[in-house]
User: Fold these one by one.
Assistant:
Number 1:
Amino acid sequence: MTTDHGADHRVDTDVVVCGAGVAGLAAACALGRLGLEVTLLDKRPTQPPLWKGEVLQPGSLNSLHTWDVLGRLEARRAVRLRRLVARTARGQELMAMDFAALGGERPWMLAHDYSTILECMAESLGPTVGLRRGVLVKDLSRDAGGRIRGVRAVARGTALDIRAGLVVAADGMSSRLRKLAGIDAAPVAYDHRLLSFELPGTLPVGDEVSAHATDRGLVMVYPLPDARIRVYVQVRTDELRQASPAELRRWCERLVGQVPALAPIAELLRGNLEHHRFIPVWCYRAPSLVRPGLVLLGEAAHVVHPLAAQGMNTSIGDAEVLAARLAAVDLADGAAVDGALRGYENDRMSRIRAVHTMSHNAARMMTSTSLGGRVLGRRLMRGTARSSRLNHLTTYNMSGFGIRPLGTLDRLVQLGVLPDLRGRSFTAPPLTGHLPGSAPQARRDSRDSGKKS
């Protein structure tokens, strides 16, 4: 409902979601399917193309299927990736995560352009969701008791006063709303960046992500739809700054010499050096996810190294768990909403912490450029590959279905200090418990989907 209040336009809604990236769109999809009226805002008039968040883990696909997103992605030729393989610079396999070993209905990753993923999610928003672009959120609104009750925004010079039972802050790593809510965050930059290339062509093995642990750090390659290849190369933070075309060509020749596994795509790389972007790499976790009337989702709450492809997938999990917590809550009851938010925080903090630890450990194994770090990382990966139990456990953790942390004894097995006695009789367990996409979708009976106009 929209009304005029002086120079401001007043908008009343159940939920206002700020930010139309993956986290915001996922929240709008999940909450809209509860029958809630959702107002989704984004400051950008249009979505710019970004080279990020291109790989969806198996654990996200059930949610995307429930929200009618998965079929749209596959209709646009999304690529199924069945394995994530760690390799040497020459291409020898160190460790392979085969998602088919987990079973389940969709045992694969899915790759597509980030902008296409966003488009498919936006097309899947339900009838109770309204997406408004070009709206800059300036401040939070609070009631007399200090509880957050909405946001103040500006759209094309018009001030908006948007009142809501819940504010979802999905406005990215530099979140304005997180700061306004008084939640501190200290993003930490890794000591390297990723240089990304997009090449025309196909890979000899078209259904896997190959992550090469090299003396120069990580080199990752995987296919994209429409006969394209994504390449990520680890570079120092000061490497290739303002490099001339000639310097970039010389750098490319050194890279191909250092990583012989790139030989099948070396000519493609040489011919497309201008199609590149630098990607800074950060990590952090917000110390809290909620304030009365407000919840942080996605990169407003957590950022991890992109190697393990967990950031976008964790954001989708955030939205699904939030919807499950709110499924039986009256959004007009602030106390009930805040109780649900505390439950959400309890649900998610341990999972976000575990994903953060897993992603950081994986990044250290693959990106270390010190001799000791490289030797240790490769020893851990080979040790994992030797144990069917640890390999299955690692694959499960990477899949997005859940986290089963490795213990001290597991680390000693990885290092070859102890034999894997538990692995001798290991049988892969079936996927059990809560899976993404199985959150309650029913809404309280009193809500009429046509109630608001």
Number 2:
Amino acid sequence: MISKLLPAPGTPRVLMFATLVNTFGNGAYLTTSALFLTRSVGLSPAEVAIGLSAAALAGMVLTTPMGYLADRRGPKQVQIGALIVLAACFTGLTQVHHLWSYVLIACVIAVADATVKAANGAMIAGAVPPAERVRTRAFIRSTNNAGIALGTLAGGLPLLLDARAGYLAVLLGNAVTFLLAAAVVTRVTAVAPASAPPGRPRMVALRDRPFLTFALLDGVVAALYNEVLSLALPLWLVAYTSASVALVSAALLVNTIGCVTLQVWASRGTHTAADAVGVARRGALVVAASCVLFGLSAGRPSWLVTVLVLGASVVHVLGELWLSSATFAVVFDLAPDWAQGQYQGVHQTGRQIGNMVGPPLITALVIGWGAPGWTVLAAIFAAAGLVAPHVIRWGLRSTTRHTSAGTVPAVRAVT
């Protein structure tokens, strides 16, 4: 019974535990970071935005090369190194007193964080049989959401204290969780470094047009569905309904419970990019339906707004889970076995681009246009659901998907 609630023994379970430790500290930091930087460090909101923008740019430029490094040096070693760098960065944040030191550390954090994710994906691809990769990745995502949720609760106390000592405790505690996660990762089976076969470009992911297209499309779609509850919904409730903003917490709780408990269920039957074609379409159309439900709440009585918002939240999380499952399958399956790290890096870059485009787009639609904006947002998701299958099939037809002499086997774990 317990085995059904956990990934396979060995590397999958170790990575799941490392993720739980790591994301607990991240959740606490994310809860307190804005107030720490403004009230304790003394930065203005504009300066915080400058640091975050610089970090996003650094991540977009360097994530793919770091994924390439994970392939060449081995994802286990690169992930451990990135976790140690993150521990040093969060310790260094305790000494930040002006903008430029914050910008520097924020850039290193962004690159190291993306490196951890890329190396983590490469490690799963190298140490887990192909049929179990998506399921393992689903367990990791469930654990990620659980860790952040628990960390968010823990970060509430420093917020109540609103004292520098409390914020510093969160930073140092987060640094410790990175070191603990690095210690846990040392227990996984090492994945052998891989080199490009003769005649193949080293940075093959940057020449793979179908995959680049998918990474960009998926990045924008993921940014939009992530911002629906955290950004669009609170602004919408204030501007266009009479319901309490506390309804946002209920919607986020529905999303968190769904992501923690149902992600593995949603990934069933999705093992390859071919399997993901229908799953991606279904997920995008379901998220589109949730946007229609959110839009129907304009000007309704508070009780009806509550019903519509909670119902839309349930629909939304189901679509999100299917989209995530499809993404896992596509990223693993379209990448050559010797380039999993750099493909994971390109996918992370797509997410970073989406995170830059998503917030202003969704704010302009929902707050600028009101209910029609939700309809347009639904149309964007529906269009993505119709386009994604063609992009995935394009990737499956691409010659970069054919293995050649000298390609490493699908599972290349070494003791």
